[in-house]
Design a protein that fits this description.
The structure holds 2 protein chains of 2 kinds. Chain A is an alpha+beta fold. In chain A, 36% of the residues lie in helices and 18% in strands. Chain A is globular, with a radius of gyration of 23 Å. Classes of the chains: A alpha+beta, B alpha+beta.
C-alpha cells in the first residue's frame, strides 16, 4: 500500500491513539470488506478498533481535520450494505464496546455500549423477569448500535414496536468529535426530538457510543397458534380479520407453500404439507387475557375456514412451532444455489393482491419465489431463488426484485421495512421520494455532518444519481403510467448474495 | 395538494418573501405552551379550515387526518369503531386540533404503558418555511427509507413546518377499565407503581394526587376482575374514574390550581427529586407537577426536563420564568442548524421552542 504523506501522517496518528488496534495489513482489512450484503465488497483504507469514548472522539477529530470518510460498524450483519467500507476511509469498528454498563430494574432501563449484541441484553435481564423487545432474527450476532442505526424490527415489533420505540437515550459523537446526549431516562427532553431522527439514520449523522434501552417485564403467559389455509388469499384475509377484531398479537407471521415444504423438509416440525399457506400467531400477556384471546382467535380462524388449527402453550410445543419459521430462510436456501431476500412493507389490506402479483411476476421472470414474512406488519420478505452460475439469472433476479419494490410503492408501501437503504436500495429512493424530499434529507445530513465524512454514498442518493438512474418519483397510492424506468433497468448495484448462511428473517 | 393546503403554502411563500413572521394556529388551545415570542409584526396562519378524515382503515390500525380536524372528532370516530389514539392526548379548552396534538407532542395518562404521540405517528405531510410541501413516512408500521422527519416534527411547536396530514397507528380500545384509589405517600405510590409494572399487572395509567394513589387497569372483563385482586385500594365508581383521568389529563384537577407558575417536570420514574414538594405525580412517577413560585429549573443540576404550563400571576413580564431548560453545546447547535434547514428565513413560530 503506497501512502501519500497525508495518509501516512494520519495512520501514525491513529496508531498513537489505538496502538495495535489499528489494522493496516490487507488480509486484516479484507475481513471487514462487506456486511450481510456480501456481494457488495470494498476493502477499507484502514480499520480501527477503539476501546474508549475518548479514543472515538480523537479518531473523529483526526478524520474530520483530514477530510477522511468514516464508516461505523457493529457486527456487520446488516443486509443493505450500510456498513460497507469506503476505499479511502476509516472503518470504525465498535465491536470492543461490548459491556452492559448498568441495569436498573426499578426504572426498567439498561445502559449498554453499542457493541453489545441484541440478545445479550435480554439474556442479562432474564433473571429479573425482564427483556428487551425488538428481536431481529440476527439478534444473536447483531449489535444494539447497529439496531439504532437501522431502526431494527423483528418478529415481536407488531406489539412492542421498533428500536425507536424502545430506546430512551443515546450518547453520540459528532463528526467533529463532540460528545453529546439525546433523549433521557425519563419521558421528556428539551428541544427537537433528535433521538427519533438518529434512529434509522444508517451511520450518516453520528457515532453512537452508548444506548439506554427500555426493558419490559416478560409476559406471564404466552401461546402460539398455527393455522393452515387452502389458499394464500384466505390466509391474507385472515391476517386482516384478526387485527380488525381487536386482537393485537405479539407476532403474526405467514409462510407460503414453498416455504412450508422447505422448512418441513429441513426441520420436520409437523407443518401441514397440504396447506397453501400457514399463519403463526403469538399471543402474550396476563394469563386470563391470553385465554380470552385464544378463544377469540379460534372463532376467527374457524370462520375463515382454516384447515388445521394447533394451539401451543407449553414452552417445548411453542418452540416447535417457531422452529420451522426460524429455520425457513436456511431451509429455502437448500432449494436453490442462491436466493435474494427482499424487504418491502405494504398496507396489510393489500397482502392478498400483492402476493398474487408476486406469483404472477414469478412466472414472468421464470424464477421461483418463497414468501416467509411478518404478515401482521405487512413487512414482506420474498425470497427469489436463482443460480448465480447460470448466465443471466442474477440480472433476472435483480429485475424481479426491483419489480417487487416498485409494486410495494405502488400500493402505498415502502422499499424497506427493516433492512435499511444502505447501498442496496439507494436508487429505489429516487422512486419513493421527490427531489424536494431528497434535498431536505441532504439538509438534515448537512446539519449533522457539514463535511459529509460519515458513511458517504449511503442511504440518500444525490439528485444527479437519480437523474442518471432515470427513475420517476411516484406518489404514494398513485398508479404507474406504464412501466417505470427503474423497473426496466432493475436495481443498479444490486447483487447476488448468499443468504443461506444468515439466520435473519 | 387541495385548495386549502395550497392557500397555506402560498401564505408561507408570501411571508418568506416579505420576511413576515407567522404564528401557526389550529384550535389555539395551547397558546400557553412554549416561549413567549415577539408577535408585534406576526401574522396568524390559521389551519382550522384544513380539516377532515383523509383515510381510515380500521383493519390496518391506521387513520390519516388533516391537521385542522378537531381531536374530539377523531376520537369519536375511532371509539365508534372500537379503537383509540393510545397516547391519550390532552384536550384543552375544547378546541384541540390534530395538528396541535402533533406539534405539541403532549401525551396523556397512558403514555408510560402504551407510548407517546411520536410513537404512533407513521407519516406526516407538511410545508416548510420555504413553502415547499413534503410527504414523509407513510401509512405502514415499518418504514426505514430516509431520515425519520415525521417524528422530528412531533413536539417541534411549529418551528419546522406547518403540519398538513398526519397518519397515526391506532389500537383497539380495551374492553373495560377500573380505577383503584388508596391513601399513600408520594414515595409509597412510586414504589407501588413500579412493583405493579415489574410484575406485569395490566396497568394503563397511574397517578398520585393529594395524598392518594390512583391506578387504572384495563383489558378484558376477566383480566380486570383478576387485576382487582392485585391492586391496592378501593375501586372507584366508573364515571368518577373516567372523570378523574380526564381532569388529570387536562390539568383541571384542583391540585393543579394556584397562583404561582405550574411546572411539569420529567424525571426517571424512581427518582427522589422534588418528591416531597410536588402536588401531582403521573406516569409511574416519571412526571411531577409543581406549583411553586420560587422554582427555577436553571439552578437545578439534577437531570430534569421541565416545561412551564402556566406563567402564574403578578409577574413582571420581564421576570417571567423561561418555560424550558436551556439547550447547550452540540445539541443546541444541532437544533439551530436543523431549524435553518427547515425554515431558513426563520418565520415559522420562531422562538416558540428554540430560544432565539
Amino acid at each position: 500500500m503506497a501512502l501519500g504523506a497525508k495518509q501516512a501522517g494520519l495512520l501514525q496518528a491513529l496508531q498513537e491513539i489505538c496502538g495495535k488496534r489499528v489494522i493496516a495489513d490487507e488480509a486484516g482489512r479484507r475481513v471487514y470488506e462487506a456486511d450481510g450484503l456480501t456481494a457488495k465488497r470494498q476493502v477499507p483504507w484502514i480499520v480501527v478498533l477503539p476501546d474508549t469514548v475518548v479514543e472515538v472522539q480523537q479518531i473523529m477529530r483526526l478524520c474530520h481535520e483530514a477530510g477522511i470518510p468514516v464508516v461505523a460498524r457493529g457486527a456487520g450483519t446488516g443486509l443493505s450494505g450500510g456498513a460497507m467500507p469506503h476505499s479511502e476511509g476509516v472503518l470504525l469498528s465498535l465491536a470492543r464496546f461490548n459491556r452492559i454498563l448498568e441495569v436498573d430494574p426499578d426504572n426498567l432501563i439498561a445502559r449498554v455500549e453499542p457493541g453489545v449484541t441484541n440478545l445479550a441484553i435480554s439474556e442479562s435481564v432474564k433473571d429479573l423477569g425482564l427483556f428487551y423487545a425488538p428481536d431481529p432474527s440476527s439478534q444473536i450476532a447483531c449489535t444494539i448500535g447497529g439496531n439504532v442505526a437501522e431502526n431494527s424490527g423483528g418478529v415481536h415489533c407488531l406489539k412492542y414496536g421498533l428500536t425507536v420505540h424502545n430506546v430512551k437515550k443515546l450518547k453520540v459523537i459528532s463528526p467533529t468529535g463532540e460528545l453529546y446526549e439525546v433523549g433521557s431516562a425519563g419521558f421528556d427532553s428539551p428541544g427537537l426530538d433528535l433521538l427519533a431522527l438518529l434512529h434509522g439514520s444508517e451511520g450518516m449523522l453520528g457515532i453512537v457510543v452508548e444506548v439506554t434501552v427500555q426493558l419490559i417485564p416478560l409476559p406471564s403467559s404466552i401461546a402460539v397458534v398455527l393455522a393452515a389455509f387452502s389458499s394464500v388469499g384466505q390466509a391474507a384475509e385472515t391476517v386482516n380479520t384478526i387485527i380488525s377484531q381487536g386482537i393485537l398479537p405479539a407476532g403474526l407471521e405467514m409462510m407460503d407453500k414453498l416455504a412450508i415444504e422447505a422448512a418441513e423438509a429441513f426441520v420436520n416440525v409437523g407443518y401441514p404439507l397440504d396447506a397453501e399457506a400457514i399463519l403463526i400467531c403469538e399471543l402474550d400477556g396476563v394469563e386470563q387475557e391470553v385465554e380470552v384471546q385464544i378463544q377469540k382467535l379460534k372463532i376467527i380462524l374457524e370462520a375463515q375456514k382454516a384447515i388445521q388449527i394447533r394451539v401451543a402453550t407449553d414452552l417445548e410445543e411453542r418452540q416447535q412451532l417457531w422452529l420451522g419459521r426460524k429455520a425457513a430462510f436456511p431451509a429455502v436456501g437448500r432449494l436453490a444455489p442462491d436466493y435474494y431476500c427482499m424487504d418491502g412493507t405494504i398496507p396489510r389490506s393489500a397482502l392478498g393482491s400483492v402476493l398474487a402479483e408476486i406469483t404472477a411476476l414469478s412466472d414472468t421472470y421464470g424464477l421461483k419465489v418463497a414468501n416467509v414474512f411478518h404478515a401482521g406488519d405487512g413487512n414482506l420478505h420474498p425470497l427469489i431463488l436463482y443460480d448465480a452460475n447460470k448466465a443471466g439469472d442474477i440480472e433476472t433476479a435483480e429485475l424481479f426484485g426491483a419489480a417487487i419494490l416498485n409494486l410495494c410503492i405502488r400500493v402505498g408501501g415502502t422499499i424497506t421495512g427493516e433492512h435499511g437503504v444502505g447501498v442496496e436500495k439507494i436508487d429505489q429512493m429516487c422512486v419513493q421520494f421527490s427531489e424536494d424530499e431528497l434535498t431536505l434529507f441532504h439538509g438534515v445530513k448537512s446539519a449533522f455532518d457539514a463535511q459529509g465524512i460519515l458513511n458517504p454514498g449511503k442511504a440518500v442518493p444525490t439528485l444527479s444519481r437519480c437523474a442518471e438512474f432515470g427513475a420517476m418519483h411516484v406518489h404514494t397510492g398513485q398508479e404507474f403510467t406504464g412501466e417505470n424506468a427503474s423497473e426496466d433497468r432493475g436495481l443498479v448495484g444490486l447483487n447476488a448474495k448468499k443468504f443461506a448462511d444468515l439466520d435473519r428473517f | 395538494m387541495d385548495a386549502t393546503q395550497q392557500h397555506l403554502a402560498d401564505q408561507i411563500h408570501q411571508a418568506r418573501r416579505t420576511g413576515t413572521r407567522l404564528r401557526i394556529v389550529g384550535g389555539d388551545s395551547k397558546s400557553f405552551l412554549g416561549n413567549r415570542t415577539d408577535e408585534t409584526h406576526a401574522e396568524t396562519i390559521d389551519c382550522s379550515q384544513y380539516k377532515g378524515i383523509v383515510d381510515y382503515q380500521k383493519e390496518e390500525l391506521m387513520i390519516r387526518v388533516k391537521a385542522g380536524t378537531p381531536l374530539v372528532e377523531v376520537e369519536k370516530l375511532l371509539l365508534e369503531n372500537g379503537q383509540l389514539l393510545p397516547f391519550e392526548p390532552p384536550e384543552f379548552a375544547g378546541g384541540s386540533t390534530i395538528g396541535g396534538v402533533v406539534a405539541a407532542g403532549l401525551s396523556g395518562p397512558a403514555r408510560p404503558y402504551f407510548g407517546s404521540v411520536r410513537d404512533y405517528v407513521l407519516g406526516v405531510s407538511f410545508i416548510d418555511g420555504r413553502g415547499i410541501a413534503y410527504e414523509m413516512g407513510g401509512q405502514v408500521m415499518k418504514n426505514v427509507a430516509g431520515y425519520d422527519v415525521s417524528r422530528l416534527l412531533v413536539g417541534s411547536l411549529g418551528e419546522m413546518g406547518l403540519i398538513c396530514d398526519v397518519s397515526f397507528k391506532v389500537l383497539p380500545a380495551v374492553q373495560t377499565s377500573a380505577t383503584f384509589i388508596s391513601r399513600v405517600t408520594a414515595s409509597e405510590a412510586v414504589a407501588e407503581f413500579q412493583h405493579l409494572q415489574r410484575t406485569g399487572a395490566p396497568v394503563t395509567a397511574s397517578a398520585w394526587v393529594d395524598g392518594c394513589a390512583y391506578v387504572r387497569v384495563g383489558g378484558s372483563t376477566i383480566t380486570v376482575t383478576h387485576a382487582a385482586q392485585r391492586v391496592n385500594g378501593d375501586q372507584m365508581e366508573a364515571q368518577a374514574g373516567l372523570g378523574f383521568w380526564r381532569d388529570l389529563k387536562n390539568q383541571q384537577l384542583s391540585a393543579f390550581q394556584g397562583e404561582g407558575p405550574l411546572w411539569r417536570i420529567s424525571v426517571e420514574p424512581g427518582s427522589t427529586a422534588l418528591l416531597d414538594e410536588v402536588q401531582v405525580l403521573e406516569w409511574g412517577g416519571g412526571i411531577r407537577w409543581l406549583n411553586a413560585p420560587d422554582f427555577n429549573p436553571r439552578t437545578r443540576t439534577d437531570p430534569l426536563s421541565v416545561t412551564l404550563f402556566r406563567q402564574g400571576q403578578n409577574k413582571d413580564p420581564g421576570q417571567a420564568p423561561v418555560p424550558f431548560q436551556t439547550l447547550t453545546g452540540t445539541v443546541l447547535e444541532l437544533n439551530k442548524r436543523l431549524k435553518r434547514q427547515f425554515d431558513p428565513a426563520s418565520i415559522l413560530n420562531t422562538g416558540r421552542l428554540l430560544e432565539v
